[in-house]
Amino acid sequence: MKNKKAFIFHCWGGQGRNCWRGWLADKLTASGFEVVCPDFPNTMEPQLTEWLAEVRKRVKKFDKDWILVGHSLGCPTILRVLESLDEDERIGGAFLVAGFAKDLGIPETRSFMEKEFDWEKINSKCEKFVVINSDNDPFIELREGERLAKLLNTKLITEHNAGHINEGGGWTKYPRLLDLIKNPD
Predict the structure, then answer these.
(1) pLDDT band at residue 1, thresholds of 50, 70 and 90?
(2) Domain total in the chain
(3) How far apart are alpha carbons 13 and 46 in whole angstroms?
(4) What CATH number has the domain bearing residue 127?
């Protein structure tokens, strides 16, 4: 394991430790990771500027020891974090679960999608991307996961009949994600 620091990003309406995220944080901590798993502000009416400020409040400078793990709205948040990194910042990996990078027609999340993503910069700031989507997500079509994986020059991992890969679908633990993080190659 080369990465020893993990920042976990929750979904719209979520909290840092609900769903499988608290379980993952505990497992990573037990494996020697420093883990940041905050509750982002105004989770029901999130604003990108507030979420990015929360990230920078917790981490002043990212380096290759960091991995970022996002669920749903946490994924475009990670992409925006990567766009905002300084010249000398780069992370080791990003794990995007039930991710998307387009306007889903949800007014509360629009601030995350107002401008186009800078895919060249995003790709230059992360050594490895892992994109995981479900083939029956009620909110995010599998083809959006395919598009996201293509834009990030990686392959899509498909979870079958996993819904939104959240607590409502029974996802309170996520051993496959833990294994992908701990055994990146």
Answers:
(1) very low
(2) 1
(3) 8
(4) 3.40.50.1820
